[in-house]
Design brief:
This protein is of the alpha+beta class. It folds into two domains: about 10-200, Jelly Rolls (Sandwich), CATH 2.60.120; about 205-280, no CATH class. Helices cover about 45% and strands about 20% of the residues. It is built from 14 helices and eleven strands. The protein has a six-stranded antiparallel beta barrel with strand order 3-8-5-6-11-10. The chain is globular, with a radius of gyration of 22 Å.
Length: about 375
């Protein structure tokens, strides 16, 4: 491996020191950090000072005693994340993305991010709760209020909780962002994911951590399902009877997606879970009837994201991103990078047909040709 200049992190250290000085003057108020970080990142223009390859090389070569304590050591967010610098109550991370795409989510921290390599389609949302079942489960209306393409050098603030509900579909492979962020704080927890058309919940691993017995039983249920054991149905009903609302919605979502991946598809999954969904509606009014549309849309998104793992062409990845974020023809056509958007879409669909004919046909059926706008 080629040697890495010893000052590769100099721009990061300078950035961190500048932010820390300004943040001290603001009393280390977490809500003040987004504006401070946006100004500092914009001025630093890190995309001209560092590169993904040099920062990854630094990660291999940095002496152990100088290596910052890593946030998110299990790489739950990023492929992987890499903590570059730590200050008092905040840090600077590099988030690398290859094929992953985070769910729509809010944040248990405050800060800002800057694209340093690649690019993304960035969707921004609002959520209006209609019923709160617990701090980690709400139903309501999720609405997309913004959609933009982000490229190298672009900077955006991160406000905590529902101050920024967003998702990024990374178009280039790899893409990378520098994130300036506070450490997680109980004041902004829990961090939620948002599933269209209107469910806000904690990620399933978060729910399971509070109940290891339920976690183990889910693993046993998966064993039954994978081996075709006839006890699967009874075990599923028992688990549903013992579940709180958040566990129940996550459990049914998992089972729906598993069945929908089979030959019967979404219709078979809906039919097999119909009685359980009716039971959920009776036990938790306002929840059960909202789950089926959530499961159907989440399953469609997983199919598209799975296809992205096989597709590395940037334009075809944009086509997949648009199919998730911009189903209406006017928005779709406004984001196509061409003076003739319809011709671009038709050409992209034809190229996708060579890679995955069934997926191309389904996108055409869903209106991805751009007709009608």
């Amino acid at each position: 491996m080629p040697s890495v200049p010893s000052d590769i992190l100099a721009p990061i250290i300078t950035l961190g020191s500048a932010i820390e000085s300004e943040w001290i003057r603001a009393g280390r108020d977490p809500l003040a950090l987004p504006a401070i970080a946006v100004d500092a990142l914009t001025a630093a223009a890190l995309q001209r000072q560092v590169s993904l390859s040099s920062l990854v090389s630094w990660g291999f070569q940095c002496p152990r005693e100088q290596f910052p304590i890593q946030g998110d050591p299990g790489a739950g967010f990023g492929e992987p994340p890499l903590t570059l610098w730590r200050g008092t109550q905040f840090r600077i991370d590099l988030l690398i993305w290859v094929d992953g795409s985070p769910d729509i989510h809010d944040h248990a921290f405050a800060g800002a991010f800057q694209v340093v390599e690649g690019g993304s389609l960035h969707g921004i949302y609002t959520f209006t709760p209609e019923r709160v079942f617990s701090p980690i489960l709400r139903v309501g209306a999720l609405q997309r209020v913004g959609l933009e393409r982000l490229g190298v050098g672009d900077v955006r603030p991160i406000s905590p909780r529902a101050g920024l509900i967003h998702s990024l579909f990374h178009l280039q492979r790899p893409s990378a962002t520098i994130v300036v962020r506070t450490n997680d704080t109980p004041d902004f927890a829990p961090q939620l994911v948002y599933l269209p058309p209107g469910l806000a919940c904690a990620s399933y691993p978060t729910q399971l951590q509070a109940d290891p017995l339920y976690q183990r039983r889910l693993q046993l249920l998966v064993f039954y399902q994978r081996t075709g054991n006839m006890a699967f149905g009874d075990a599923l009903w028992r688990m549903a009877d013992q579940a709180d609302p958040a566990q129940l919605s996550a459990l049914l979502g998992y089972v729906f997606d598993t069945i929908a991946a089979g030959p019967g598809g979404v219709l078979d999954a809906a039919q097999q879970l119909s009685e359980l969904l009716e039971s959920t509606t009776a036990r938790y009014p306002g929840l059960g009837a909202r789950l089926l549309p959530v499961f159907e849309q989440a399953h469609r998104r997983r199919i598209l994201l799975s296809a992205r793992g096989r597709i590395h062409d940037t334009e075809l990845r944009l086509l997949l991103a648009l199919s998730i974020y911009a189903p209406d023809p006017p928005t779709l056509l406004s984001l196509v990078p061409s003076t003739d958007p319809r011709a671009w879409l038709q050409g992209a669909l034809e190229r996708l047909s060579v890679v995955d004919g069934a997926l191309a046909a389904s996108l055409r059926a869903a209106g991805m040709s751009g007709e009608g706008g």
